[in-house]
Write a structure and sequence with these properties.
- The chain has 76 residues and is mostly helical.
- 50% of the residues lie in helices and 0% in strands.
- The longest helix is centred in the first third of the chain and has 11 residues.
- The N and C termini lie far apart (38 Å).
């Protein structure tokens, strides 16, 4: 899990935060995404990963999308 007060930086951390912060239960997310609830739990607790298909399914069920930050140009 992400420590309180720390801003999630990686895609994994952001997905974990989105799962935790949603108003849906893990059971609901599991049903909507087709991903086993135990798999989601292991992912949230850092005990396992998700396949790309699993990431896509959970992201879709939560209505997530990736938005890239534009890096600032370094002046040199």
């Amino acid at each position: 899990m992400i420590p309180m007060g720390k801003k999630p930086t990686t895609l994994t951390e952001q997905l974990k935060a989105a799962i935790v912060e949603t108003d849906r239960s893990m059971g609901q997310i599991a049903r909507e995404s087709g991903i086993d609830i135990a798999t989601i739990s292991r992912f949230l607790h850092g005990k396992g990963g998700l396949s790309m298909e699993g990431l896509d399914a959970i992201g879709k069920s939560l209505g997530l999308r990736i938005v890239a930050d534009k890096p600032s140009k370094k002046r040199g």
